[in-house]
Design brief:
single chain, alpha/beta, elongated
C-alpha cells in the first residue's frame, strides 16, 4: 500500500532563485462568533506572531437591503443598527482575547453575503492567507447548499486554511501535500514550500495511485524527484500510496502517518464542471478531521 522515500535534509539541484516565496503577513479571519471561528482565530494569531503579521477580523451582517460598505456608511435603520452594535460589541470582546496580545488587528463589519464579503475584503486588503473555521457538511446539505468554507476554497486566489477543532498550539510537525506533481502545480507549490519551511515542518509529498490512474513506482519516483529539484525544502519525505480513489488515499495516508496538516492545490471549478467533476480539495475540506490548507493553481 505504501512506498516511502526519506530525504532529510533535501540535497536539491537546479534551484531556481526566480521562484518567489510566500510571506504570510496579512491574514483574514472571518468570524460568526461560533466556536469553530474561535478555533480559527487562535491559529491565525499564532501564524501572525510567527511571521510578524497582522489580522483582519471580519464579521458579515447578512441583512435585507444589504449594501457593500462597512460600518459607518449610512446603515442607520433601527433594526440594522441593533445588529450592527451587537456585532461591534462581540468583536470588541474578541479583541480582548489573550491570543491577540501584541498583534495588530483590524476589525471589519461588512453588510454583504458571507462568501461575497470574504472575497471582496481579501482582495481590497491584499490578504495573503484566509483562515476559517468549519465543521464540514454532508449529504444533501453538502450537495445543494455547501459551506462558505467550501465556496471560499473553490474561488479564492490566495491560500485558505480550514480549521476543524481547537488546538492550543498549531504545531505542524508533519505536513502532507498530495499532488500529481505536474508542471501546473509548480507555482502554487512555491507557497507550499515556504509554508513548510516557516513552520520547520517535515513536508510529506504523496502521490496517490488509483486503479484508474496508476503509475509504477520507478515512474512515480522520477516524476517526484524532477518536480522537487527546483525547490529548497528543509525537510522532505516522498511517498507513493495506493487506494481506491484520491480523496480516500489522502485521508488514509494522513491518518497513517498521523499528519498535523493536509495540503492540496485546487483548480477552482465552477458551474456544471464542478457539479459533474467535483473537487478533491473541497471534499477534503468537508470530510477531513485534520486542518486543510489549499493553494489555487
Amino acid at each position: 500500500m505504501l512506498y516511502q522515500k526519506k530525504i532529510i535534509p533535501l540535497l536539491f539541484k537546479n534551484y531556481n532563485p526566480k521562484i518567489t516565496f510566500y510571506i504570510m503577513k496579512k491574514i483574514l479571519v472571518p468570524t460568526d462568533f461560533s466556536d469553530h471561528a474561535g478555533y480559527a482565530l487562535k491559529v491565525a494569531a499564532q501564524i501572525a506572531k510567527k511571521n510578524g503579521g497582522e489580522i483582519f477580523l471580519l464579521h458579515m451582517l447578512e441583512l435585507p437591503h444589504q449594501g457593500s460598505d462597512a460600518v459607518g456608511s449610512g446603515h442607520d435603520l433601527p433594526e440594522i443598527m441593533l445588529f450592527k452594535n451587537a456585532a461591534i460589541n462581540k468583536l470588541e470582546d474578541l479583541m480582548d482575547d489573550d491570543c491577540l496580545a501584541d498583534l495588530k488587528v483590524s476589525e471589519i463589519i461588512q453588510f454583504e453575503l458571507a462568501f461575497d464579503g470574504i472575497m471582496n475584503i481579501s482582495k481590497k486588503n491584499d490578504v495573503d492567507l484566509i483562515v476559517m473555521g468549519s465543521h464540514g457538511a454532508s449529504g444533501f446539505k453538502e450537495m445543494f447548499i455547501g459551506s462558505n468554507a467550501e465556496k471560499v476554497v473553490r474561488n479564492s486566489d490566495i491560500p485558505v486554511l480550514i480549521i476543524k477543532k481547537e488546538a492550543d498550539e498549531f504545531d505542524v510537525n508533519k505536513f502532507v501535500f498530495a499532488s500529481d506533481f505536474s508542471d501546473e502545480i509548480k507555482k502554487p507549490f512555491a507557497k507550499v514550500v515556504d509554508f513548510a519551511n516557516k513552520f520547520d515542518t517535515e513536508l510529506h509529498l504523496v502521490m496517490i495511485n488509483t486503479p484508474s490512474s496508476f503509475k509504477p513506482t520507478h515512474v512515480a519516483e522520477v516524476i517526484m524527484n524532477d518536480f522537487t529539484s527546483n525547490f529548497k525544502i528543509n525537510k522532505l519525505t516522498t511517498h507513493i500510496y495506493n487506494d481506491v480513489n484520491v480523496e480516500s488515499g489522502v485521508l488514509n495516508f494522513a491518518n497513517h502517518i498521523d499528519a498535523d496538516l493536509i495540503g492540496m492545490s485546487t483548480h477552482g471549478r465552477k458551474g456544471l464542471s464542478h457539479f459533474f467533476n467535483g473537487s478533491i480539495s473541497e471534499d477534503l475540506v468537508n470530510h477531513a478531521k485534520k486542518p486543510v490548507v489549499t493553494f489555487k493553481i
